[in-house]
Design a protein that fits this description.
The complex is a heterodimer of chains A (519) and B (307).
Chain A: H1 3-31, H2 42-76, H3 85-107, H4 132-160, H5 173-205, H6 218-235, H7 238-252, H8 259-273, H9 288-300, H10 302-316, H11 325-348, H12 350-356, H13 360-390, H14 396-422, H15 438-469, H16 507-512
Helix pairs in contact in A: 1-2, 1-3, 1-15, 2-3, 2-4, 2-13, 3-4, 4-5, 5-6, 5-7, 5-8, 7-10, 7-11, 7-13, 8-10, 10-11, 11-13, 11-14, 13-14, 14-15
Chain B: H1 11-44, H2 60-88, E1 98-103, E2 106-111, E3 116-119, E4 121-125, E5 130-136, E6 141-144, E7 152-154, E8 160-164, E9 170-176, E10 188-194, H3 196-207, H4 216-227, E11 257-258, E12 263-264, H5 267-275, H6 277-280, H7 293-304
Parallel strand pairs in B: 1-5, 4-10
Antiparallel strand pairs in B: 1-2, 2-3, 5-8, 6-7, 6-9, 9-10, 11-12
Classes of the chains: A mainly alpha (519), B alpha+beta (307).
Chain lengths: 519, 307
């Protein structure tokens, strides 16, 4: 029940699901490597792409971020554990159960195959007669419960268990973003759970929430799902922003630039993210009133996001940059997430969406923000906090190999997909006609995916070797300033023998500069 | 390299491309700013010694600048979006020229002017604004021809519209752009734009019913068509009436492709399709009837008369 053990459970489990989801991606990329390939049947492909998306969103990114939050939050606020340790354990095990239930669908004969957001009527019984979708709904219900429980736990912990002197305005930005994120989870996940229950009632009890026959509406599913689904993508990125806000200052040897603005823009993003959902529906034909309103809100959300990017760059400006592997990933994040964010702006410019939605341009965008964004930030966090969690340093030499393979492989895989989408290639296709350039572009994308696969093997090797024979880390190998570095690596079960006094967001800096070294 | 969105042949697609170009200037500017700043930082501020740098914490003025300027840029994009949307989605004050109905996994096409029905290949005259109504018979699909106009979903129970004026004769590819099941990948389409005179000729021919074949394999094939349950799904105007459960076959032999762009329309391919549709398009609803060689020969001969 100790939060550190639960955090490690989350991290280990998500690593396994990451590898599974990655293999699913590689299977897809093999099938798409040239036109009219017969590696996977359409039925198999449809299950694989559905499971890839569902796994990565629900079983990798969210639990990974919450697992890191679980491990780090009590340490970063000087507390002994999470406020609700039993709820914490329950959250993990119910999420794991959901994951196993989802994959059990393969054993039952057919995994879900309607995509990770299961649009109706395709996902209704009449068009999806196998049990895969029922497993999907039930699994996500379990995972949803675990996620909400963790969010509640984090809020209670952060509000109540901060050490003396650690006011809300002195919170490390990772903790602040986790706090805001937790409120967003509580606002959004119930919409998913309610939708899943309605879908199950439609499928199992012959109701018609989402079917025209009987007075329901397929479009209602889209509204309900995206009311969850859009905040969900911000849930998948806010803690990553928090990681970057910790890593960049330390390896620039300066405090974060514009602490208040970075914190405030997080709240703006969270609030706005609740009001942009119908930008996933610009092609549905809702009418110009809807398109204008959601185009406006979606364009607006770019502003606080940009504020963060500029503040991170300003943090590095005038600093003393250390090119650790962690920092390399943070730099890769800044570049890649900016591209992903800007392609998002092109979608918010909604007539452009009328060309690019539901094509490989979207696949490019989402992977630029989720992989080039969140995952690169997570990699930065892994290299940064691995020493704290395990007591050993990851190899910087292997780290560089991992970094370059992953960075180059990522761009090779996904940049070219912008062009495939603009040339007319829709998403979720198991194959494609031999149109000029499509085979070549897809082959390049496939090769990039395998380069990324190799980079993951390098990461796994680095983790394995370092666990056994990595350099001893010591308490604070990076000369960082937040409370988790004021205890041993790994921390004792009670976390701290003594918590340093807190008078600013950088307690260890203050300890090392008693005169108040604002040089 | 040819990129469809960058090769518009209609004013609608042209306006969408214009908006894309405007957004590329703005987004390109931001990306350049960010990238060049990072590159500069990597060179100018790399760690050269143990001294800690100036511990700057912020600058409210610059925060305001980089909030207000992007705000202005997105407001500009919003204004351009409204202008573009109004130019692409003209007001609708008439009955549609075409009604396109999406099915799993083919397109039913009705030509209002002639009360003619066809499948998968859409003919349009050049130089005329055509209103296309888009519907669905089953799940959500999406009608999209990138060189011609915006995409719009085909939603069961709802009628959506798209305006297209093709300015250049030619053949333009399109596809279903909403995952709709196993054969979403092969629910493609093509738009064949013809000069008005050629279009009128084609339309008049399209309205003609098929004629009963006079003899030989074709006549035998026509008989087998009825006996083998093909007639239970496929309509052939003038020969065997049926609802649009499956693609209309009245003029199937004059189409360029078969099975929604899956195969080139040749007698050999048609025969192959009849032999095992489930192998060519796994999951499609046309059953494999395990037809004998003679059935295949006769049916193909019959269908080839349906020009």
């Amino acid at each position: 029940m100790d939060h550190k053990r639960i955090g490690i459970l989350y991290l280990s489990t998500t690593l396994v699901f990451f590898c599974i989801g990655g293999i699913e991606a590689l299977l897809m990329r093999i099938q798409l490597a040239w036109p009219d390939n017969h590696f996977l049947s359409p039925d198999a492909y449809d299950q694989v792409f559905t499971m890839h998306g569902t796994t990565m969103v629900f079983l990798v990114v969210v639990p990974l971020l919450l697992g890191l939050a679980n491990y780090l939050t009590p340490l970063m606020i000087g507390a002994r554990d999470m406020a609700l340790p039993r709820l914490n354990a329950f959250s993990y095990w119910v999420s794991l159960f959901g994951g196993i239930l989802l994959y059990f669908s393969f054993i039952d004969g057919h995994a879900p195959d309607a995509g990770w957001f299961s649009y109706t009527p395709l996902s209704e019984k009449g068009f999806s007669t196998r049990n895969g979708l029922d497993y999907w709904a039930l699994a996500l219900l379990g995972i949803g419960v675990g996620t909400v429980a963790t969010a509640i736990n984090l809020i209670v912990t952060i509000i109540n268990l901060r050490t003396e002197g650690l006011t809300i305005r002195r919170l490390p930005l990772f903790v602040w973003m986790v706090l805001v994120n937790s409120f967003l989870i509580i606002a959004a996940l119930p919409a998913l759970n309610a939708s899943l229950v309605m879908l199950l009632i439609d499928r199992q009890l012959s109701a018609h929430f989402f079917l025209n026959l009987g007075g329901g509406s397929p479009i209602l599913w889209q509204h309900y799902f995206w009311a969850f689904g859009h905040p969900e993508v911000y849930i998948m990125v806010l803690p990553a922003f928090g990681i970057i806000s910790e890593v960049v200052p330390v390896f620039s040897r300066k405090p974060i630039f514009g602490y208040g603005f970075v914190a405030g823009s997080t709240v703006a993003i969270a609030l706005l993210s609740l009001g942009v959902w119908a930008h996933h529906m610009f092609a549905v034909g809702l009418g110009h009133a809807w398109d204008y309103a959601f185009g406006a809100s979606s364009l607006l959300i770019a502003v606080p996001t940009g504020v963060k990017i500029f503040n991170w760059i300003a943090t590095m400006w005038g600093g003393s940059i250390q090119f650790t592997t962690s920092m390399l990933f943070a730099l890769a994040f800044l570049f890649s997430f900016t591209i992903g964010g800007l392609s998002g702006v092109t979608f918010a410019t909604f007539p452009i969406d009328w060309q690019t939605t539901d094509t490989y341009y979207v696949v490019a965008h989402m992977h630029y923000v989720l992989f080039g964004g969140t995952l690169f930030a997570v990699m930065a966090g892994v290299y940064y906090w691995f020493p704290k969690i395990t007591g050993r340093m990851l190899s910087e030499r292997l780290g560089r190999v991992h970094f370059w393979l992953m960075f180059l492989g990522f761009h090779m895989t996904f940049f070219i997909q912008h062009f495939l989408g603009l040339d007319g290639m829709p998403r979720r296709v198991y194959t494609y006609p031999n149109l000029p350039g499509w085979g070549a572009m897809n082959l390049i994308s496939t090769i990039g995916a395998f380069v990324m696969g190799i980079s993951v093997l390098v990461l796994l090797a680095n983790v394995w070797i370092s666990l056994h024979s990595g350099e001893q880390a010591g308490d604070n190998p990076w000369n960082a300033w937040t409370l988790e570095w004021a205890t041993s690596s790994p921390p004792p079960e009670h976390n701290f023998n003594r918590v340093p006094p807190v008078r600013s967001p950088r307690p260890l800096w203050d300890l090392a500069h008693p005169q108040g070294g604002r040089a | 390299m040819h990129i469809s969105v960058f090769d518009p042949v209609s004013p609608e697609a042209g306006r969408l491309l214009w908006l894309w170009d405007a957004s590329m200037w703005i987004c390109g500017f931001i990306l350049a700013l960010v990238t060049l700043s990072i590159l500069y930082i990597l060179v100018r501020y790399r760690r050269r010694g143990p001294a800690e740098p100036n511990q700057t914490t912020g600058n409210p003025t610059i925060e305001i600048v980089w909030t207000v300027v992007p705000l202005g840029l997105v407001l500009l994009l919003f204004a351009l979006s409204i202008v573009t949307a109004r130019a692409v989605d003209h007001p609708i004050r008439q009955a549609p020229d075409l009604v396109v109905i999406g099915h799993q996994w083919w397109w039913e096409v009705h030509y209002s002017a002639m009360d003619a029905v066809d499948a998968n290949e859409i003919h349009l005259p050049t130089g005329r604004e055509m209103l296309v109504a888009v519907e669905s018979a089953d799940v959500i699909h999406d009608f999209w021809a990138p060189q011609l106009s915006r995409k719009v979903d085909a939603v069961p129970g709802k009628r959506n519209f798209v305006w297209i004026r093709v300015d250049r004769a030619g053949v333009y590819p399109g596809a279903c752009a909403e995952y709709c099941g196993q054969q979403h990948a092969w629910m493609r389409l093509r738009v064949i734009a013809q000069d008005p005179a050629a279009y009128e000729t084609w339309l008049a021919h399209e309205a003609q019913p098929a004629a009963e074949p006079q003899g030989g394999d074709a006549a035998l094939g026509r008989m087998r068509f009825g006996q083998l349950t093909c007639a239970n799904c496929h309509n052939i105007r003038g020969i065997q009436k049926q609802q649009q459960y499956a693609p209309d076959l009245t003029h199937v032999a004059s189409r360029q492709m078969l099975a929604a762009e899956r195969l080139e329309n040749t007698p050999a391919n048609l025969k192959d399709w009849l032999r095992h549709p489930n192998v060519i398009k796994p999951g499609c609803y046309m059953p494999n009837l395990n037809l004998s060689d003679s059935d295949l020969t006769q049916l193909t001969a019959f269908l080839e008369t349906l020009r």
